[in-house]
Design a protein that fits this description.
- By secondary structure, the protein is an alpha+beta fold.
- The protein has a single domain, classed as 2-Layer Sandwich (YaeB-like fold).
- The chain is built from three helices and five strands.
- It is globular.
């Protein structure tokens, strides 16, 4: 495919950065085996180029909070994200161990979302 025929992404993708500059999703991804990082990256890219998408790849959890659902060798990986205009902000990543997203995970993502929104207001 030539460059002029290449599809452009619908969404840009960025990592949430905390006040100290840390990027928790990037750190989490780097702690995973290379094959898991690759699988998650492919799924994020699919969401980036195919937005809006639904199940089984993307599921809405709350207003302004979605998850990308990935199958990896160790189980099920999830990356929680929000949208800021046409930007997909990766807020939190974890390996799902049960049938439901843990409350602690949702609270972490919501806290980061509030921090992101507070930063937008300043």
């Amino acid at each position: 495919m030539s460059a002029s025929n290449a599809r452009s992404p619908i969404l840009e993708v960025v990592f949430f950065a905390g006040a100290s500059g840390d990027e928790p999703v990037r750190s989490w991804l780097m702690s995973l085996p290379q094959d898991a990082r690759h699988a998650i990256g492919v799924d994020i890219k699919t969401a980036q180029y195919g937005w809006p998408l639904g199940m089984p790849l993307v599921r809405k959890l709350r207003p302004s909070l979605w998850e990308v659902r990935s199958r990896v060798a160790d189980g099920n990986a999830r990356v929680l994200f929000t949208l800021r205009g046409q930007t997909m902000v990766l807020m939190h990543g974890f390996m799902r161990k049960s049938g439901r997203t843990p409350t602690t995970v949702l609270k972490t993502a919501e806290r980061r979302l509030a921090e992101l929104l507070d930063g937008d207001a300043s």
